[in-house]
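Why this split exists: single-chain examples teach little about how molecules sit against one another. For that reason, every record in the complexes split bundles all components of an assembly together and asks for one structure covering all of them. Below is a record exactly as it appears in the raw files.
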Amino acid sequence: MPPFNTGISGRDGYTVTFMAVETHVLDDDCVALSGWGRTAPTLARVFRPRGHAEAAEAVRARAARGSIGRGTIARGLGRAYGDAAQNAGGTVLDMTGLDRILAVDTTAGLVVCEAGVSLHRLMAALLPLGWFVPVTPGTRYVTVGGAVASDVHGTNHQAAGSFARHVTALGLLTADGGVRTVLPGTPLFDATTGGLGLTGVILSVTLRLLPVETSLMSVDTERAHDLDDLMDRLGSTGHHRSHAVAWIDLLARGAATGRAVLTRADHAPYDALPRRHRARREPLAFRPGRLPAPPPYVPGGLLNRTTVGLLNELRYRRAARASTGRLQPLTAFLHPLDGIPHRNRVYGREGVVPYRCVVPYGQEEALRRVVLRIAGRGCPSSPATLRRFGAGGPGWLSFPRPGWALALDLPAGLPGLGVFLDTLDEEVAGAGGRVCLAQDSRVRPEALAAMYPRLDEFRALRAELDPRSTFTSDLSRRLAL
Amino acid sequence: MKDAFGAPQSLLVLGGTSEIGLATARRLIARRTRTVWLAGRPSPALTGAADSLRALGAAVHTVPFDALDTDSHEERLGKIFTEGGPAGDVDMVLLAFGVPGDQARDESDPVAAVRVAQTNYTGAVSAGLVCAGALQAQGHGSLVVLSSVAGERARRADFIYGSSKAGLDAFAQGLGDALHGTGVHVMVVRPGSVRSKTTAGLAEGPLATTPEAVASAIELGLRRRSETVWVPGALRVVMAAVRHAPRPLFRRLPV
C-alpha cells in the first residue's frame, strides 16, 4: 500500500507523510470466508454471477490482472471443511446464483443443470418424477458444481463409484474466458473431476440419474463388537445391498476397540412396501424434517470425551443387534445430520478439523494401527464412519481409491491435534493410502506426492491451461497445487 | 497459508536476533513453516541466527532492517511482500525487536532514553503499519506484536522501557481493532520477565518465563486466534490486581 502524501509541509520544510491503513473492510463485497470447519478464515471479494456471461466476464477481468491480482475461485454452499473455496485477497465467485435446472429427460434419466443447483433442490425436483441423484455425500446441501470439483462419494461407492462416474458432460469456463464442453475420457475431464475448481469454473453439468420407485430405503442393521469383527462383516460377500456404512465408536477401548453399528441399505422398491403402509399412497414424497439450529455462539469443548462417550454408548446400545428390511426415509439414511442447520456451530469458535483417509485393501494392519492410535488417544469424534471403497474414478486428484475409508471430525481445539494427525498421515501414506483434499485443512504439502501420484500431471495441465494462475484458492496456495 | 491450526508456512521476524523471535521461528519450523525472513541490522549474530534456522530445514533470507530508520521501512519491508508474488505470501509477521535500555543511565542521558522510545515505539509503529497494510492487501495473515507486562503499569525500576511498551501495546490493540474483519489478525503478547542471555545472573521474579514458553504461547494463540496472550497465563490475573493497586501502595511494592 503506497503512503499517501498529505501535502502538509512541516516547520523544517520536510513533508509529513502518513501511512494509509484502511481501517475498514475494503468494500461491502469483501467478506471473511471459511470452510464448514470454521478454521483459518480469510478475506475475499465475493461476486455472485447470475448467468454464464457474468461469470465469464468476471473471470476475464481477473485473468487480465495477471499476477497482480490474486485470482479467483468458485464457491458453492461452503460445505467443504477446509480452505478449498476461499481465496485470500482475491475474488470468490458465489455460484449459488446459477441455480436453474435446464432440462430433464425423464425417459433416459438425464438432467442438465447449472452448477449452483444444490443436490437438495435436485432431489426435490426429481424424486417426484421417479429419479434420484446417483451419488450423494453425507449432506445434500452441496452444489452440483462442488460435487464434481470435489468428486464426492457416498455410502454406495462400491456399487456406484464417485460422482464423476455419472457425469456425462461439463460446461467449463476456463481462464481464457471461453466456455468448453468437457466430455468424459479427456484429460481435462479427469483433471476437473476432483480438481478442486482449479481448472476453471464449472458452469453446467449433465448428470445421469438413478431410477427409484419410492423415497424410502430398506435398511439392514447389525452390530460389530470390535474392529476385526467389523472388517469381517464389511468385507463379507453375499450382500446385495448397494449402500453400506459403519458408524464406529472410536472412544471404546480394550476388547471393544472399534465396535460399530453397521448399516446396509437399498432404495426400497414399491412392491416391498407393506400393504397398508402410508407410503403406498405417496411413494415418492420428499419431506425432510428440520430441527432448530444451535445458537450462533456455542462455547468450545462441548463435544469432549465425556459427552461423545455417552452419545456413542447410547448409539451403540440403541442399535438393533440384527435387523433387516427396516424402512427409513432416504434423507434419514443418507443425510442423517442435515436436519440440524448450522450443526458445525456445536464445535465452538475454534472449529472442527476433519480427517478423511483411505487405506488400500491388503493394508489392514495399517488401518488397525490408525484406529488404535485414535482410540488410544481418546479423540472425541462424533460421528466417525468406516466404509469400503470400490474402484476409483479417473480423476487425477479424486480421493476415492479401492480400500478402507475412515472419516472422522475432531474439535480443532484438542491439544496437540496437528502433530497427531501428521503421524496418522505418515501411517496412511506409508500404506499407499491418501487423505481427501477437498475436505483438507491441514495436510503437510510434502506428503501429497506420495498420496496422489498424478499430481505432477495435474500441475502440468494447470500450467498449460491457466499459466497466470487465474484460478487460485487458499488450498492451492497452501499445498502448492 | 495458515492451516486449520493457525500454523503459518512463512514467517517474517522483525528483529531477527531476538531470542523470543528465534525460539518462535524454531517452534513454527517444527510445524509448517518453510520460509523465514529475518529482518535486522546486518551482523554476524543475524547471519548466525539464519544459519541455525537453515539447519532445521527452512529457507531463510536475511533482510537489512533498522527500526530507527523509519524512512526505509516501506521499501525494505514492502519488497518482502511483493517479491514472492501471490505464491509468496507472508503468513505471519512477528514484531520482536526492542531494546531494554539501561534505566539508571538513561535517566541522566535523555538522548539514550529517546533511542529506547524510538526503537520500541516509533520504529514499531512504522514497521507495524507497513506490515499491516501489506497483510491487508493479501487478505490474510497474523501480526504478532511482542509487548511486555512492563507496559501494563509503569514501575520505578524501568519506566522508560515500560512507557515505550505501553505505547506499543496501545498501538497494537488499536491496530487489531482497525483490522478486525479484514482477514488480518493482530495478537498482542505480554510476557513477564523473560530469562535470556541478557538477563542471565540477575535476580528474577516468581513469574519469570523463557523464550520457549513465549514461543509455545504464541503457537497456541495463533491456533485460537487470540487477541491478547499473557506468558505465563497467570499474569493476566496478577496484572489485573497490580493495575488497580493504589499509587502510594504500588510505589512501596518491591517490584
